[in-house]
Write a structure and sequence with these properties.
two-stranded antiparallel ribbon, about 400 residues, 7-stranded mixed β-sheet, Aminopeptidase, about 40% helix, 12 helices, alpha+beta, transmembrane
């Protein structure tokens, strides 16, 4: 039975059944005995409880240098010549911007110092014609002149104020502008004062009465008004460095304080003022004077608009600010209207405009006001009628040299 039981367990212990039967069972082995350990009165009992440790602060992971984001591929630097060219272009752009600011700022500053005058008369007025009609007046005002300067310029000490120069500048919607001289000795009806020389209208009622007299005798409506006195005229002439004129004959006039030689020459303030005011030594009298006035005005506009004035900062500053104390414009004037007037004068002086004088019937008529100029009313009406329609194409027949 014991053998059979052992055979049954052979499969469990992976024994060879035949070998198991032939071999005796291994005798029992005794383990060697160990001597007891010496008695220890204070035995160290190892605790089986886990050792309590002080809480440790959380450790940060080892720091690593921050990883920089990937940089975009750097564009290759332009060649040195290209970099220099860009710097030069930037410098030129800055310079041009500064010049532009200067060209704009100076007129704005000067415009803020210009005097204003009420010129629009009350009551009925002519209908507004196409385009713009400027009334330009050169008065004999001594404002801004000391007694010594009045003596030097030969202006006299008259207490009253009259107009030495009266011009109409018409700028049509299309076509050539026209500069029309009105002789100061023109004998015309002055509203409320009967008939007299037109320059007396300013003395009687200032800019408003002068404007009303112009409108009544021309049938045109004055849109803009500009007035300059003696001091302003001299300042402008000096600011542009004088004007160039060519005289066929010498001019000597004690009243105008001038003694000019024959030939081409440059006239500065005093001589230029005497040149436009002189009439006693002129065989054409007042008509000769209006021709010189247009000549000088055209030369002033041409020189003022020349590149030499713009590129010269000192001249540009002096011109913009010259005569502001003795310069007056209408209350409705703007910088745009003033620039439009200057441009039109430049066109006239360059030959792209018309220079006219009111048609005259008698240049030396005897009237209650003394020697006066009488208009040719029929021709004057025709000329002003064309302007009232906004057409300057037929005005050439009234043109004067």
């Amino acid at each position: 039975m014991a053998s059979s039981h052992d055979d049954d367990l052979d499969w469990l212990y992976h024994r060879d059944p035949k070998q198991s039967r032939d071999q005796e069972p291994e005798p029992t082995r005794l383990l060697p005995q160990q001597e007891p350990a010496a008695y220890d009165p204070n035995p160290q009992v190892e605790s089986r409880q886990p050792t309590q440790r002080a809480p440790q602060p959380p450790q940060e992971p080892p720091s690593q240098p921050p990883v920089a984001p990937p940089q975009p591929a750097r564009a290759p630097r332009p060649p040195r010549k290209r970099r220099v060219g860009r710097r030069i272009a930037a410098g030129i752009a800055i310079f041009l911007a500064a010049v532009l600011v200067w060209l704009v700022a100076v007129p704005i500053y000067a415009w803020s110092h210009v005097n204003r005058v009420a010129f629009e008369p009350s009551g009925s007025r002519p209908a507004d014609q196409p385009g713009t009609l400027y009334l330009m007046v050169g008065s004999d005002s001594r404002a801004g002149l000391t007694k010594e300067e009045q003596k030097k310029l030969g202006t006299g000490h008259d207490a009253g104020q009259r107009t030495d120069t009266i011009m109409l500048l018409y700028v049509p919607p299309g076509g050539q502008p026209a500069l029309i001289s009105i002789p100061r000795d023109s004998y015309l009806p002055i509203p409320g004062y009967g008939s007299n020389k037109i320059n007396a209208a300013y003395s009687f009622g200032g800019a408003k009465l002068l404007t009303k007299t112009i409108e009544k005798n021309t049938g045109l409506r004055v849109d803009q008004y500009t007035e300059v006195g003696f001091a302003g005229f001299v300042d402008v002439i000096d600011a542009i460095g004088g004007i160039h004129v060519c005289l066929k004959q010498p001019i000597k006039d004690h009243d105008a304080h001038i003694n000019l030689k024959k030939g081409c020459q440059t006239l500065v303030g005093k001589d230029a003022l005497g040149y436009v005011r002189e009439r006693h030594a002129d065989p054409h009298g007042d008509l000769g004077r209006v021709e010189r006035q247009r000549q000088v005005l055209g030369a002033m506009a041409k020189k003022a608009a020349s590149p030499a004035t713009i590129v010269n900062p000192m001249r540009y500053w002096r011109l913009a600010n010259s005569g502001t104390d003795s310069l007056a414009v209408g209350e409705n004037a703007s910088m745009f209207s003033a620039m439009k007037m200057i441009i039109a004068l430049g066109r006239v002086s360059s030959g792209n405009g018309l220079t006219l004088t009111v048609p005259i019937a008698n240049a030396n008529a005897t009237t209650s006001a003394g020697s006066s100029v009488l208009w040719d009313n029929a021709k004057a009406k025709e000329m002003f009628g064309d302007i009232a329609r906004g057409d300057t194409s037929n005005l050439k027949k009234f043109a004067t040299k």
